[in-house]
Amino acid sequence: MSMGEYIKGRGAQKNVSNRFAEHSHETRDDYLNYCEAEGDEAIESKTSIIETFPKTIVNKVTSPDIGMEYSLNPYQGCEHGCIYCYARNSHEYWGYSAGLDFEQKILVKRNAVELLENKLKSKSWQAKPIVLSGNTDCYQPVEKKLKITRSLLQTFLKYRHPLGMITKNSLILRDLDILKELAQDNLIHVNISITSLQEHTRRILEPRTASIKKRLETVEKLSNANIPVSVMMAPIIPSINNHEIMPLVKEVGERGALAVGYTIVRLNGAIGEIFSDWLRKSLPDRADKVLNQIANIHGGSLNDSRFGTRMKGEGEFAEQVKQQFRIARKLYLGDREKPKLNCKLHEDFKDGQMKLF
C-alpha cells in the first residue's frame, strides 16, 4: 500500500500523533513497500472492541454552545468514521490517535446500565434531560450486537426519566417499542443527523453510517409513531454541502421533522490535520478552496475554540447559512414545535415503580 492509496470504508486516512503521548510514530514509504511485497497489511483494517468499566456515566456539559446539560456515552470512539467529527479529539485522552484509532478502537462501557441506574436512584439527583450521545453515536455498528443502548432505554423507561437521542443510524428503529412508551409520557426527543441528500457525499464524509434513504425513512417512521423527531444538518461544509440547505429542510419537513438545527464545520485539535489529509485524497480538485473557506469562517484559522462563534462561524458565509435556515424553517416547518420533555414523573419512580402514597 502506498502513502497516497485511499483507505476505503474509513473516514480518516491515517493516524496522527497524540498530543499527550511522549513518542510519535511515522509510517514510512519503505515500510509500506516492504509490506506490499510480503503481502502483509501495513495498517490494521479491523475494528477492535475494548471493554472498560468507568466509575461514572452521566457527564455534566459545561459548554455554553451545546444545548444540553447532561450527556451519556456508552461507547468511546465511533466506527461510523465521520471525517469531521469533533469527538475525535477525545480519543487522545484514552491514549489513542484521533485518526484511524478513533474508528478502529472502540471502547465499550460494560457497566453503563448499572451506573445509570445508580444515578437515577440517587436521592440527590433531580430529573433533567440526559442526552444519548453527546460525543459518539450510541447506535454505531457494535450496538447491534451488544444492545447496551437498548438496555439504557429500558432503564430510562423504568424510572420515567427524560432523555434526548442523537444518531445517524437507522438501528434506532429496532427500539421503536421502548421509544413509543417513552413518548407517551413526553420523555423522549430524537435527533437524526443528516448532512447531505447525496449518497456519494455521505459515503466519503460518513463511510459507515446508514444511507441517506434509510435515515429519511427513519425520520418518517419515528414521526408516524408519534415520537418527536428533529434533524441536525451538521456540519455545514463550504463547497461540499452548503448548497443543500433548502432541499434538505424541505425533504425532512415532508417526512415529519419538528425542527432542523445546524452547525458549521470546525477543525479543532487534531481534526485539522486529519480533515485536510482526507480532503486532499478524496476531493483534491477543491481542497484548497474548501480549507480557505473554512478558515474565513473562523477568523482566519482552521482551529476555532471560541465560545459563541465556533459552532456557527462568522462573516458573510456564516450569515448566508443562517438566513437560509431561517427561510427554510419558515417555508417548510411553519410553526411546528417540539413538546417539552417531562421532568415531573421521575420523582415518583425513584425506586423503579410508581409510588402509591
Can you put this structure into words, describing what you see?
This protein has helices spanning 29-38, 100-104, 112-121, 143-146, 148-158, 176-184, 199-205, 212-224, 245-254, 271-282, 287-297, 316-332, and strands at 48-52, 58-60, 70-72, 75-76, 105-109, 130-132, 163-167, 188-193, 229-236, 260-264. The protein has 357 residues and is α/β, with parallel strands linked by helices. It has a single domain, classed as Aldolase class I (TIM Barrel, Alpha-Beta Barrel), CATH 3.20.20.70. Strand 7 (163-167), helix 6 and strand 8 form a beta-alpha-beta unit. It starts with 28 loop residues before the first helix and ends in a 25-residue tail after the last helix. The mean pLDDT is 90.
